[in-house]
Amino acid sequence: MIDAHRAARQPAASPTVSVPSPSVRDMSGAARSGRTRTSYVCTACGWETAKWVGRCGGCRAFSTVEEQASAPTAPGRPAAVRPARAARPVTEVATRRTTRIPTGLTEFDRVLGGGLVAGQVLLLAGEPGVGKSTLLLEAAQAFATGGGGEQARRVLYVSGEESAEQIGIRAQRVGADSDSLLVADETDLDVVLGHLEATDPALVVIDSVQTLASSTTDGRAGGVGQVTGVTQALTSWAKRAGVPLLIIGQSTKENNVAGPRALEHLVDTVLTFEGDRHTALRLLRATKNRFGPADEVACFEQRESGLAPVVDPSLLFRAQRPTPVPGTCTTVTLEGRRPLLAEVQGLVASANTPQPRRAVSGVDSARLAMLLAVSEKVGRIALSSYDIYVSTVAGLRLSDPSCDLAIALAVHSAARDMPLPGQVAALGEVALSGDIRPVRGLGPRMAEATRLGYARILTPPIADRGELPSEVRDGRRIEIVEVPTLEDAFRAAYRPIALPRP
């Protein structure tokens, strides 16, 4: 009895409660609650932060960080799945030749490496008004009419920036009148996918990816999440259907592809369309190409009737004059794999201010400052007290270091008021010591200068003449003058040319 009374007086034992550790609760709480995580992402470079900031911490750009809501990830560790096909040695993988689908636009196909590939996703970027829509509309017209030698093929052109009537006005201007070219104006991704299933096209053009939006993805059209989601959906359809897909993308003021950097990784080919809006010249460059060369360049000329291919662009970048004038020198630059003849013009004038002016157009100003310092020391001419202007012809942008020698000779000719012979071209990179350094692609450069009738070319010392074309090695059509230093180039450039004009 006493023991029973004592047991009744003792408090009952509390049940054991299992409390998860804070780390476990933090890791799975968001997933259990079903709430989305809000983050802020830079639309230019994809940099992500937990709170909004006015300046991106990655690319340092202002007003590019926007809010983005992302779905929470499911808790747990991913399970391993047995692969359907085991990994094989690379020697056992059969190589298959890539079948090209020519569009019929010759210069466009040449940049791609001969044409499109089934399921290829291509991104074309460029500044507003440069002619991206016109270029792809002409490529769609050539493809639809069987420009590659085949019968007519159906093409779907989807625009989210213009109405179908506006596209029709442009099509009438460029002569796009094929019945196989279908036009739609949509901004909803689901409706676009419906058009793709209904029309069963052989080629699709999207203008532009920043205008499309998906109802299953959070964020506004053109945001990081929307651009990535739309591109993934379109790429998945193109790979599954085996249909080439051409996407137009907007660009930033630095002429880079707008949107997340992952956009360039999702596509197979990235082309940039460049050009000065004050000139008619347009350059189409391949910066990424999984199915062909990534260093090709094509030239187009903007006309009232559309874009016309320029077969021989070297004729555009040099001035035509009967006699040479002081302050001009010709060089051969490589735009991708294509050699282009370019003329550099220099002007040296008396300065009216205590601080002489340095103005450039088509040439890097920092590079010019270095070349002026080297030329003043090596050439023993006073340049620091003069205004100096350097420009290129037809708005060509020269970033190739092989143009250094031509720039230095143009300024030297202008300072001495003595013209160089009209049949002289110069190649070489100028070092701070005054040495002329070798350049790549010497053979194609010399072949281009020879084709256009130049009789003398100044080059750095050539280690192997076997890489030169046969018409250059014999020395009968062109005189090769090897100049190891800038001082030697100044002396050799003005000598009369002994070879007869071809």
Structural class: alpha/beta
Mean model confidence by pLDDT:
85
Tell me the strand percentage band: 15-25%
CATH class of the largest domain: Alpha Beta
- The count of β-strands is 21
State the main characteristics.
502 residues; alpha/beta; Rossmann fold; Ribosomal Protein S5, domain 2; 3 domains; 9-stranded mixed β-sheet; 4-stranded mixed β-sheet; 13 helices; 23% strand
Description:
The chain has 3 domains: 38-70; 106-311, P-loop containing nucleotide triphosphate hydrolases (Rossmann fold), CATH 3.40.50.300; 315-492, Ribosomal Protein S5, domain 2 (2-Layer Sandwich), CATH 3.30.230.10. The model is unreliable at 11-34 (pLDDT under 50). The radius of gyration is 31 Å and the shape is globular. It is 27% helix and 23% strand. The chain has helices at residues 2-9, 22-33, 106-112, 132-144, 164-174, 189-199, 224-241, 262-266, 365-379, 404-416, 442-451, 470-473, 486-492; strands at 37-42, 48-49, 65-70, 121-126, 155-159, 181-185, 203-207, 245-250, 269-274, 281-289, 297-303, 306-309, 328-335, 338-350, 358-361, 386-392, 424-426, 429-430, 436-437, 456-459, 479-482. Helix 9 (365-379) packs across helix 10 (404-416). It has 502 residues and is of the alpha/beta class.
Concise synopsis of the structure shown:
The chain is α/β, with parallel strands linked by helices. The chain is built from 13 helices and 21 strands.
What's the arrangement of secondary structure elements?
Elements: H1 2-9, H2 22-33, E1 37-42, E2 48-49, E3 65-70, H3 106-112, E4 121-126, H4 132-144, E5 155-159, H5 164-174, E6 181-185, H6 189-199, E7 203-207, H7 224-241, E8 245-250, H8 262-266, E9 269-274, E10 281-289, E11 297-303, E12 306-309, E13 328-335, E14 338-350, E15 358-361, H9 365-379, E16 386-392, H10 404-416, E17 424-426, E18 429-430, E19 436-437, H11 442-451, E20 456-459, H12 470-473, E21 479-482, H13 486-492
Parallel strand pairs: 4-8, 4-9, 5-6, 5-7, 7-8, 15-16, 17-20, 20-21
Antiparallel strand pairs: 1-2, 1-3, 9-10, 10-11, 11-12, 13-14, 14-16, 18-19
Helix pairs in contact: 9-10
